[in-house]
Structure formats: structure tokens, C-alpha cells
């Protein structure tokens, strides 16, 4: 391991460990986050002000390492193997000759580099052929990844692994491998998919005696192997770039997620209507049809807050335009919808149609807004509008230009923007690795393209929407995107396996910082059945982003496409959600403050309980509510694991002691819900057609005997005024049956 250690310099909270071939920087933040950044190929220089590494990727972290108020690190030398010992706060880092580290948290060894070479299994010469046959492609030559950099850490025998955003498969990612490369694949997503739309290089390792997060900030294509190649270690391999990662230790998952979101940003509190029910379909062809949809929800007494306009509303799929025959008066439409308490969200894709007469193309060409080929010409590919060019959202001037176009939508009464196809997806083969953006080549920009598009959209809305909290929905994302957008899980299908998948994804997205998330209810591709639709609604009942969406050409799936039984069951489910919206809103506010996700896997709340490490067909809404949806056809009951403690059946009030499985009654129109003893839950009752109807007089506090406390929060549901004190906060404390109330803040 010829990377010999020479020397160590300390400045404030950063240690520079100088090796023969470069330096390793170790910074210890005030909150015990450890940032490790390798700078190879540099002269060995002592630490200097502008040499302390900044965050590797701009706009991802909220604080730069160099800004972190350090608690001074100290260095010492212990023995021959350990060349330097750096310590601050609860952290001690032992650094070795070969750039390997051991990190101790509160005196306990938590993270260790795996020091021997990876033990790859021998490849059979026909293996590539077999894989190619299974995956339906021809054998390509294995490319030598000469520039790859790898983090390899020891994997504890009982470590479970969570996070990584929307990756399919089990909740616990141990034993699997994945690739971060934003991918739009319309085939039904199954466990063996390595990549999907989002690349969030953050994961949590939960051992029996420790819990920590790793955020590996590098946007190049990255492989994660969590004990798949070998059970002794896990590794993160970036195809290019430098090693740059953060270690975040905590006593539990909540602390680790708290640290990660303190670094990359929390999911903000949205306008309250965002938490309502959304209806969408690729294929609402006229504005009259959109209005009819809203009317039908009202007629059937199914609450609804939002209708999405998919690409059908545009003129030839040109972004920021309207089809003047089918959508001649979107402003008028939005006003009529507003009378019914319904808002409009519209889709905007990144691809700009190559059309000399189209203002977006003309303006973009004039200002050099689009990505280039290596020969300097504007790069072209095809998306919905045909030949298209791709805005370089890594450029500030392009983001401002694009952001200002949101005015066009706002003037038509549109209240939120849905960003799609921003992996970026392309129909004439993938963008070559060397397409040029300001921030770098496509191979470096790909995984962060959607992030910068969402940022442009968010900032445009923030500037132009009269102080309202922007809502951007995205398909592609990177770490930290949660500051700018919520995300949905893309093109799922109307199949039973995708109800289960949606919950695995929502649970992992939630602990990966993207707490405003959800899947297409009913399934996007393929044809739904009435029973599947109902169970999809029930599974999503408390999922933060709640939208029925389907693809053109599939069976329509608005609830009224089916019989009364279906309509009744959907109505019941949507009403249950609306009843809990005050609680959801409180949790969303808490999430903005602390990063605690709105929806959580059971393991987030009960990490010491080994039974819950892979449960994702049940989830928690906050810490009080457990939902156990039916995710298979023909069921009338399901087994439910209740963690330790006392629980109440939400419907019957029956009390159960936890730490065991029970059988819950689950006919078609019922999603099993259990409430923890000591719960305090603000709910809304009365006639509610949309969140607008949830007025103060309709809110009451549900309690379930036990010990608990909860802060109920109110603001204007719309603007940022709460950040200047325009909110009320009341703390409730429950002891047995006795509920006490204390006003914490009165600003409304
Ligand atoms: C993509 C989106 C989908 C949308 C369609 C048409 O497939 O994922 O939600 O309906 O494009 O815009």
C-alpha cells in the first residue's frame, strides 16, 4: 500500500494528513459530523485557508466544511500503525499509513476501513454472456475503470442498511448492490433494478450497538455494494472524481437523519393544500375535461385539492406554452377551479423544442443556454416535442431565465410545477458522457441535472409567486434536492407488486431526506382493477404526496370509472386522510425544523427491535400512527406487527399490547390503523371538500390514554410569514386521560 504518510497539520477543526501522493482532509463539525476529503495529485502542501475543502458538489450541502464552526481538532501520534489521532467533540479518528481510518464515536469504534483488497469472486468466462442473455443485450467489453475511487468499510455481522432514495427492492439494502445513475426505464420496476430516477448517495448503517450515516458526495456514476460481493465489507465506488464523504454518528436513526438533513437541508413546509388529494392523468385532453374532473369529485363527495395538467395542455409539447384550441383559457379554468377549492399544477419538462419560431428556443440560443457537443455545437436529442435541446441548469444565468418563465404559468393561475424527464431522459439514445455543461461533462452532471432544474423552478416560483411557498415536484433528484422539491417515484405500474414497492420507496426516500414523496396511486402504466385501485389508495393514505396518476392508453382510473363499492372505499380512504391533515401538517412543520420525516419505516421509531428491520408493508405517520395496508388481492384480514407498547385499533378502540403480531380485520374498505398509547392527534371533522374547508372550528384533539406530548401548529397555510413569527404553537401533554395545554407561541 504505497501511499506513505508524511505529516499532519491542523487548522481549526480540520486536519490535513499529508501523504506521498496527496492529502487527506478530515474535518470534525460541531455536531460530530466528520467530513473526509481526499485530494490526490497535488503537491504535499500544508493547510491553507483556501485549501480546506469546500463541499464537493455546489448547492447540495447547506454549510461548507470551511464554514463549519469547528471545535479545534487535536492531533497526536499513538503507535507505529496509527500515524495520527485526531479528536474533537465525541469523535476520535485514527489515521494510518495507507490512508485508512478508524472512527470512534463516544469512545466506541464505529467505522473502520476494510484494509485488505476486495475479495471479488472469480468470473466464469461465460458469465458476461449469460448476463447479457438475461438482460437482453450483447456482450460489451468490461471497461477498465482506471479513475475509479472506492470507499470500503467493514460491515458488521448484523448491520442493516437503509436510505439511497428510490432504489427498488427491500427496505433493508444489506446484501444488495445498486448504481447511482438517474434512469428512466418504463419496464415495471422490480427488485433487480440497480438504478431508478434518483441518485441520493446517502445511507444509514444500523448495527446492534451503533447507528451512523454515510453521505458520499460525488455525482459520477457510483456503485454501492452492501455486502453483496462479500459479507465482510460494503463499498461505494465512484467511476471518477475524488473521495469525499461525511460520516454521521447518532444514537438512533432519528439523530442520523437529523444530521444528514442539517447538512443537506430539510424538506420544507409546503402550502397546506399540497397535503390534500391530487388527481392526474396523462390524457386530460381539454380544459373542459379538467373542470369536469373537479366537478365529479365534488358531486361524489370525494375531497380533492389539486388537478395536474400533463403534457397535453401544451402547444406541441413546447414548454411554457398552451394549446390554444384545447386549453384556450387556462386562466379562466383556474378561476373556476378556485371556486371549487381546487388548484392546478402543470408539468414542465427540460427539453426545449428545436424550432426557430419558438421563443424558448430563440431566447435560449441567443443567451447560450443549452448544453453543447464537444465540437461546440448545441447538443440535440429527442423528447416529446421531437428534436430538442437541453438547458444547462448548472449555469446561474440559465436558472434565472428559466425560473422567470414560471411567471407565464403563474399568470395562468397555475399554483405548482411538476418537473419530469429530468434525468435527463432522451429518446435517441442516452446523452453521451462528454456533452458539455458549465459544471462539467455529462458524466459529472447527469445525476445532478434534475436537482438543478428543480432549483431553477423553485427559485423562479419563490421570486414570482407573491411570497407563497413554492411547490415543485420532480422525478430526478440528488442529495439535498429536498430543499427545492418533492419527488414522486416515476412510472410504476398497476400491479400488486407496486403497492409494496411504493411503500419501500417512500420509507427509504423519507429517511434519505426527501420527505415529500409518494407514488402514482393506482399505478401509472398497465391497467388497474377496482380492487387494486382501492388498495393503492389505502396504502398511500398517509403518504405525504398523494396523487392518482395514470398513463395515456391505460384503463382510466378516476374512482368513478368503477362501481359504487369502489367509489365508497376510495371516498372513505380519502376522507380518512383529510381527517388527519392537521396532524400531517404539524409533522411537516416539524420535518422542516428537525428533518424528522413525516412518514417513517417502523425501524426509524423502533430501531432496537430486530423484528422491524425489514418491515415496509407497515409504516408510521409520525410516532403515533401505524398503518398496515393490504397489499395483495382477495384479502379480508392481514397480520400486523405491533412494536412494543400499547396500541389502540383506530376504528374499534380495542387495546392491544405490542411486541407481537396480531390479525387485523381488513375488508376492502378498511385500511388497518393503530394508534400508540399516549397519542395526541389533531384531526379535522365536518364537511370537508378540500383543505380550504379545514378551518379552526373543525379541528379537535384526539387522545389515547398514556403518556405523551405533542405540539400543534397553525399558520396562514400559504406564505412564509410563519418564519417571522406569524404562527401559533400549542403544546399538549397527556398523562393517563388528563390532557394539559400550554401556549408556546401566539403570533396569529
Ligand atoms: C413520464 C412521466 C409521467 C408522465 C409522462 C407524460 O413518463 O413519468 O408521469 O405522465 O411522462 O408526460
Can you characterise this structure?
The protein is of the alpha+beta class. It has 4 domains: 5-112, no CATH class; 145-264, glycosyl hydrolase (family 31) (Immunoglobulin-like, Sandwich); 272-598, Alpha-Beta Barrel (TIM Barrel); 600-746, Golgi alpha-mannosidase II (Immunoglobulin-like, Sandwich), CATH 2.60.40. 20% of the residues lie in helices and 28% in strands. It has 13 helices and 46 strands. The strands form 11 sheets. It has a 9-stranded parallel sheet. It has an 8-stranded antiparallel sheet with strand order 1-2-3-4-18-15-14-11. A 6-stranded antiparallel sheet has the order 34-35-36-41-38-39. A hairpin with a 2-residue loop joins β8 and β9 (108-112). The radius of gyration is 26 Å and the shape is globular. The protein starts with a strand and ends with a strand. The mean pLDDT is 94.
Which percent bin holds the helix content?
10-25%
Overall number of structural domains? 4
The best one-word shape is globular
- N-to-C terminal Cα separation, in Å? 64 Å
The helix-and-strand class reads alpha+beta
Q: Please count the helical segments.
A: 13
Brief digest:
By secondary structure, this protein is an alpha+beta fold. It has 13 helices and 46 strands.
Please specify the SSE layout and strand pairing.
Blueprint: E1 5-11, E2 14-19, E3 22-28, E4 34-40, E5 74-76, E6 82-88, E7 91-96, E8 101-105, E9 108-112, H1 127-135, E10 149-154, E11 160-163, E12 177-180, E13 198-199, E14 202-206, E15 211-216, E16 222-225, E17 233-238, E18 244-250, H2 253-264, E19 277-279, H3 287-299, E20 306-309, H4 330-339, E21 343-348, E22 352-353, H5 359-366, E23 380-383, E24 386-389, H6 396-404, H7 406-411, E25 416-419, E26 436-437, E27 440-441, H8 442-464, E28 472-474, E29 477-478, E30 486-488, H9 497-511, E31 517-518, E32 520-521, H10 530-539, E33 546-548, H11 564-579, H12 581-594, E34 599-600, H13 602-605, E35 619-621, E36 625-627, E37 637-642, E38 646-649, E39 655-657, E40 660-665, E41 673-676, E42 680-684, E43 699-703, E44 706-714, E45 728-736, E46 738-746
Parallel strand pairs: 13-29, 19-20, 19-33, 20-21, 21-25, 25-28, 28-30, 30-31, 32-33
Antiparallel strand pairs: 1-2, 2-3, 3-4, 4-18, 5-6, 6-7, 7-8, 8-9, 10-17, 11-14, 12-16, 14-15, 15-18, 16-17, 22-24, 23-24, 26-27, 34-35, 35-36, 36-41, 37-40, 38-39, 38-41, 42-43, 44-45, 45-46
The structure holds alpha-D-glucopyranose.
Amino acid at each position: 500500500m504505497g501511499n506513505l504518510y508524511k505529516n499532519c497539520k491542523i487548522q481549526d477543526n480540520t486536519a490535513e494528513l499529508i501523504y506521498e501522493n496527496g492529502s487527506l482532509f478530515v474535518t470534525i463539525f460541531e455536531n460530530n459530523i466528520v467530513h473526509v476529503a481526499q485530494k490526490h495529485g497535488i503537491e504535499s502542501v500544508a493547510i491553507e485557508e483556501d485549501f480546506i475543502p469546500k463541499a464537493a458538489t455546489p448547492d447540495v450541502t447547506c454549510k461548507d466544511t470551511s464554514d463549519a464552526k469547528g471545535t479545534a481538532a487535536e492531533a497526536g501520534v499513538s503507535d507505529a500503525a496509527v500515524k495520527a489521532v485526531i479528536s474533537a467533540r465525541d469523535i476520535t479518528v485514527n489515521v494510518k499509513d495507507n490512508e485508512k481510518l478508524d472512527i470512534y464515536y463516544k469512545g466506541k469504534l464505529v467505522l473502520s476501513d476494510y484494509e485488505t483488497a476486495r475479495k471479488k469472486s472469480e468470473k466464469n468466462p461465460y458469465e458476461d454472456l449469460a448476463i447479457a442473455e438475461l438482460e437482453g443485450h450483447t456482450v460489451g467489453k468490461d471497461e477498465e475503470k482506471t479513475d475509479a475511487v472506492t470507499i470500503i468499510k467493514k460491515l458488521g455481522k448484523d448491520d442493516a442498511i437503509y436510505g439511497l432514495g428510490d432504489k427498488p427492492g427491500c427496505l433493508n439494502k444489506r446484501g444488495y448492490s445498486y448504481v447511482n445513475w438517474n434512469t428512466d426505464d418504463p419496464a415495471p420496476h422490480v427488485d433487480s433494478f440497480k438504478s431508478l430516477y434518483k441518485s441520493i448517495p446517502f445511507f444509514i448503517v444500523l448495527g446492534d450497538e451503533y447507528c451512523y450515516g454515510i453521505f458520499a458526495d460525488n455525482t459520477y456514476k457510483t456503485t454501492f455494494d452492501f455486502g453483496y460481493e462479500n459479507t465482510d465489507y460494503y463499498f461505494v465506488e465512484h467511476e471518477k472524481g475524488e473521495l469525499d464523504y461525511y460520516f454521521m454518528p447518532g444514537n438512533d436513526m432519528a439523530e442520523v437523519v437529523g444530521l444528514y438533513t442539517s447538512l443537506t437541508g430539510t424538506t420544507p413546509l409546503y402550502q397546506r393544500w399540497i397535503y390534500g388529494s391530487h388527481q392526474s392523468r396523462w390524457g386530460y385532453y381539454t380544459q373542459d375535461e379538467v373542470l369536469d374532473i373537479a366537478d365529479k369529485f365534488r358531486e361524489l363527495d370525494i375531497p380533492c385539492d389539486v388537478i395536474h395538467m400533463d403534457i397535453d395542455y401544451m402547444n406541441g409539447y413546447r414548454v411554457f406554452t398552451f394549446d390554444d384550441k384545447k386549453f384556450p383559457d387556462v386562466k379562466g379554468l383556474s378561476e373556476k377551479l378556485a371556486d371549487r377549492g381546487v388548484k392546478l399544477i402543470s408539468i414542465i419538462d427540460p427539453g426545449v423544442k428545436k424550432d426557430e419560431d419558438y421563443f424558448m428556443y430563440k431566447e435560449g440560443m441567443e443567451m447560450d443556454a443549452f448544453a453543447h457537443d464537444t465540437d461546440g455545437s448545441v447538443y440535440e436529442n429527442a423528447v416529446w416535442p421531437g428534436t430538442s435541446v437541453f438547458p444547462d441548469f448548472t449555469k446561474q444565468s440559465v436558472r434565472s431565465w428559466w425560473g422567470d418563465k414560471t411567471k407565464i404559468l403563474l399568470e395562468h393561475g397555475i399554483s405548482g410545477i411538476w418537473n419530469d424527464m429530468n434525468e435527463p431522459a432522451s429518446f435517441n439514445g442516452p446523452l453521451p458522457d462528454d456533452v458539455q455543461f458549465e459544471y462539467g461533462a455529462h458524466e459529472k452532471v447527469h445525476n445532478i441535472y434534475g436537482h438543478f432544474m428543480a432549483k431553477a423552478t423553485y427559485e423562479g416560483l419563490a421570486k414570482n409567486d407573491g411570497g407563497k411557498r413554492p411547490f415543485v415536484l420532480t422525478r430526478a433528484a440528488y442529495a439535498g434536492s429536498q430543499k427545492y422539491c418533492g419527488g414522486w417515484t416515476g412510472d410504476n405500474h398497476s400491479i400488486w407488486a407496486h403497492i409494496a414497492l411504493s411503500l419501500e420507496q417512500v420509507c427509504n426516500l423519507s429517511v434519505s431526506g426527501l420527505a415529500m414523496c409518494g407514488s402514482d396511486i393506482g399505478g401509472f402504466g398497465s391497467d388497474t382493477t377496482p380492487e387494486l385501485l382501492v388498495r393503492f389508495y389505502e396504502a398511500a393514505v398517509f403518504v405525504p404526496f398523494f396523487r392518482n396518476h395514470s398513463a395515456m392508453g391505460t384503463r382510466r382510473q378516476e374512482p368513478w370509472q368503477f362501481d359504487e363499492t369502489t367509489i365508497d372505499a376510495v371516498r372513505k380512504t380519502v376522507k380518512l386522510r383529510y381527517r388527519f391533515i392537521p396532524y400531517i401538517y404539524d409533522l411537516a412543520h416539524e420535518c422542516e425544523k428537525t428533518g424528522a420525516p413525516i412518514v417513517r419505516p417502523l425501524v426509524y421509531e423502533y430501531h432496537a427491535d430486530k423484528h422491524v428491520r425489514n418491515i415496509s408493508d407497515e409504516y408510521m405517520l409520525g410516532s403515533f400512527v401505524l398503518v398496515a395496508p393490504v397489499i395483495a388481492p382477495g384479502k379480508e384480514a392481514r397480520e400486523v406487527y405491533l412494536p412494543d407498547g400499547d396500541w389502540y385499533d383506530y376504528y374499534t378502540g380495542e387495546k392491544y399490547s405490542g411486541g407481537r403480531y396480531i390479525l387485523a380485520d381488513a375488508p376492502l374498505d378498511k385500511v388497518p390503523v393503530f394508534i400508540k398509547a399516549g397519542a395526541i392527534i389533531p384531526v379535522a371533522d365536518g364537511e370537508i371538500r378540500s383543505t380550504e374547508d379545514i378551518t379552526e372550528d373543525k379541528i379537535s384533539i384526539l387522545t389515547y390514554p398514556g403518556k405523551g406530548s405533542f405540539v400543534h401548529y397553525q399558520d396562514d397555510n400559504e406564505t412564509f410569514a410563519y418564519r417571522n413569527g406569524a404562527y401559533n404553537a400549542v403544546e399538549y401533554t397527556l398523562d393517563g386521560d388528563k390532557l394539559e395545554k400550554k401556549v408556546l407561541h401566539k403570533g396569529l
